[in-house]
Amino acid sequence: MSGQIVNLFVDLKDIERDGVLLQAIKTGDAEAFSEVYRKYWFPMYEVVYRKTGQKEIAEEVVQDIFTRLWRQRSTLSIVDLNRYLFSAVRYEVIDYYRSRIKYDDFDECLNDLESISNTTTEDTIFLNDLLDTIDRELEKLPEKSKEVFRLSRFQHWPIPKIADHLNLSEKAVEYHLSKVLRHLRIYLNNSLLIVAVLAAL
Based on the domain organization, do 78 and 117 belong to the same domain? Predict the structure, then answer.
């Protein structure tokens, strides 16, 4: 039997077993739930940790998903358990980054994404897509604001150096940075960019 056929056979058995476990969980079978938990907890944790770099966040996200699975077991319509669980992981991570962009420092959030996304070629491609899209969005802003942001974010210049270079006051530099960050927060929060960045999940 070829490797591909063997793998297909194993996958089918796995899907069938998941289906049996799902039906048992719907009836309140705690042992079936424990088996699913043991099987999927670590792979789900690995995905969240790879995307956030935060162990506590990864643990919390996975725990929340399993808690929700158990609480809503009688009403959930799940065909493919694997797909359901990893789709839940995907949306939780997307929500995590949306909240970071909305409430935290935008620049720090991008730095976190950059350091995490350097782990795989696929992640680097998605990060570059995000940065390219941000660059296109910057073109809609006044020239001075664009220049201030690029020197700050991409050249890592401190505010006094930017002010001296552009012959602006430090307050003016802070104003331009604030203006750009506010614009990008709104843009990113209302777009599907984060979905694109995390599409490798």
Answer: no
The domain boundary residue, chosen from 58, 80, 102 = 102
pLDDT in tens, 130-161: 666 677 777 888 889 889 988 887 788 889 99
Contact of 157 with 151, CB cutoff 8 Å:
yes
Helix (H, G, I), strand (E, B) or coil at 141: coil
Q: What residue type is assigned to position 123 of the chain?
A: D
Q: Are residues 85 and 119 in the same domain?
A: no
Give the residue numbers spanning the domain of 80.
3-102
Is there a single domain that holds both residue 130 and residue 150?
A: yes
- Which among 75, 142, 138, 81 has a CA at the least distance from the CA of 110? 138
Is residue 93 within 8 A of residue 159, CB to CB? The reply is: no
Kindly give the residue spans of alpha helices, DSSP state H, lying in 2-80: 3-26, 30-52, 55-71
* 91 and 42 share one domain: yes
Token pair 């995590």: residue: 96
Q: What is the three-state SS of 152-173?
A: HHHCCCCHHHHHHHHCCCHHHH
Q: What is the mean pLDDT of residues 102-130?
A: 55
pLDDT of 1 above 50 = no
**The residue type at 198:** L
Q: What are 41-62's pLDDT values in tens digits?
A: 999 999 888 888 889 999 999 9
